[in-house]
Amino acid sequence: MRCMNTVKTWQTATSRQSDTSRIAGQLGRACRGGEVFLLVSDLGGGKTTFVKGLAHGMGYDGVVSSPTFMVSRVYKGKKLELHHFDFYRLDEGGMVGMQLAELTHEPYVVLAVEWGDVVKNVIPMEHITVKIDRVPSGEDDRTITIKVPEKFAYLLEGMA
Ligand code: ADP
Ligand code: MG
Fold it and tell me: Does a structural domain hold residue 87?
C-alpha cells in the first residue's frame, strides 16, 4: 500500500489585490528552490497577481504579466529563478510541457503554473496548490487556500 504524504492546509481571506500579492510575497521570500506552485482559480481570480507577489518576494522587481501563447516567462530573483507558465485554452502541454518537466529537476528554480491540468502528468506529486475562490460578499473578496506537502512545510512557518 502506498503511504499518503501529509499535506498542510493554510487558508486566508483577502479583500484587495495588494493583500493577495503580499501573502504571495511572504511565500516567495520563504522559497528555497524546487518549489512547484499550481495556481487554481477561474479567469480573473488572481493567479497572475499571486505569481507577481511570489516573484517580488524572491527579489525580482520588474513586470509580471500572464504569459500568452504558451510562452513561459522567467523572473530572476536574488538567488532563485521563477518560471511562470500559463496553459490557458491549450489542449496539451506540448514542447513547453516538456521544458517544464526538465525544470522540475533544477535546484534553483521555482515553478508557478496557471491552468496546469494539461501538464499534470509532469507535475511532481509533491507540489503546492494555491486555490483562489471568489466570495459573494464583495467583488474583490477572495478565499485563498494553500495546500503544502510535508516537504515544503517551511513555507507556512512564518504565516500568521
Ligand atoms: P488570473 O491570472 O487568475 O486570471 P489576474 O491575477 O490576472 O487573474 O487578475 C485578477 C484581477 O482581480 C485583477 O484585476 C485584480 O486587480 C483583481 N482583484 C480584485 N481583488 C483581488 C484580490 N483580493 N486578489 C487578487 N486579485 C484581485
Ligand atoms: Mg493569469
Answer: yes
